[in-house]
Design goal:
single chain, transmembrane, membrane, transmembrane helix, alpha/beta
Length: 521
Amino acid sequence: MNFMVKNFMRPKNLGRHFWLCWFLALLTIFILNLSTLTLSPTVWMDEVQIVDYGRTIFDPSTDWSITWLVSENRPLISVLYLGNLLQNLTYQIFRSPLGPRLASSFGAIFAATVCVGFLLSLKTPKWVAFVLGLVLFLDPIFVSSYRGARVDCWAIGLCFLTCWLIRHQTNSLESSSSITKPPFFITGLCISAMLFTWPTAIFLTPLIATEFVHFYYLSQKSKNRTAFEIFPLDPSITLLLAGFTLGLVAISLPVLSELVSGIKTILAFSKSDSIVTNFADKVKSAPRQFLTSLSLSPFLLLGGITTALILTSRYKQKSFVTLLVLGLIIFSSPYGNRFVYLIPYLIVVIALLFVEDSSVQRRIIIYWLKRLFLVALLIWSITISLGVRNIVALTQVEGRNPERILEFAEAVIGEGDHKVLIPYELYYAGRDLGWKVYNFFGYIQSPSDSDYKKFLSQMDYIITTDRSDNNNHFRNEFTFKGELNSLVENKQNKFFFGGRPFPVYYVYENSMKNKIDSKSR
């Protein structure tokens, strides 16, 4: 056993086939997860909103959407569209939830791989970079994001790639080698693409800033060099800004009109009373949401934050931005898919803990504590992401199977351009059957609101998970047509480790509207 531990801590042969071992590890994990990819998590709000954003960005005049603004009678358009567009394209190719989830899984592979490359450029020991790359790929919060077809993974991957490119130039400067121009231009392109992948990618910019500030500091210390090498900052900034501007223009031009409209919507929303109410609600729920995220990934969150505090003297910039982003996330909305943007910072500061420091390395207790911490990180991630998640999914196959939702929708309503107000889980089924599917974006102020009533009267069907009289305000116009109970029979396992199958769905038909429509045909 002692021999195995020593070989794990100091793998002599890892460098010979490092990247081969890395991709074999990723391939193994990917294959293990593939059987439950469409089962865990079940289809959910963020997933289908992202796919629909990718549809509406180039069809803004569409008369249906899962992010419908009732008062304005139009869909909400997301102009930061690169990730959304990719998810919609993969859905159209596969015609299944598998498409967007595969795309996000490949995004996670990309993010973990460039993360390892960046850590190696920081002079992190190879085995540490390897393990931390796996910790990122298997972290329960990150896994929940990419398995749920979110696009955070692509933004994180572009962030790590940008940092890697800048660090490569920094290392060239430190070794007195000549720096090259193209990486700074590519860096600018990567930053623009990252910011247009998903709105909260803005949280990743401080990490990129620390890398560029470090490069700037070293460049200013350069002496006795040629003109370009004495002042590498000026052409570097010029090339970076050129790449960023070109990327920004190229990405913005196809959606320029929607970009202007989107800015107006954001400004109007920022002046409304609802933003104050929503912000107050988020502040109140912050402690609970933080504890929920902490329960998913306690070792990484607590260990990484503690490491950032420990390293404040040695790595001031990295520690500062880590704690800054932590504060911003807690202040804004500390739920799991927001905390995913803290993970890159935590991975980096933990890696820096292993960068050579002779005064610390001599302390045998610290030496072993760091390694045990890394092992605990990996074991926790493997247990939750490969073990618990897949076990829960496989024990709830019947209650999570999206094909069953499709069969139910086809049997009760059928194909056609029906207008249907749906829960998010029926989005894929509705699109497959040619429905015009709707759900609300934001809050309905009152069920008696005239816009709300008018909107409901236009629906052919309403599918809901709530059959109580207090919440169904359409009983006079709609008649009950059928239900689907997808809950697993093993009720003790119903919420095992948070595992939730599909709920019960109730279908109501607008019989009056459908009678009028049938007579007019």
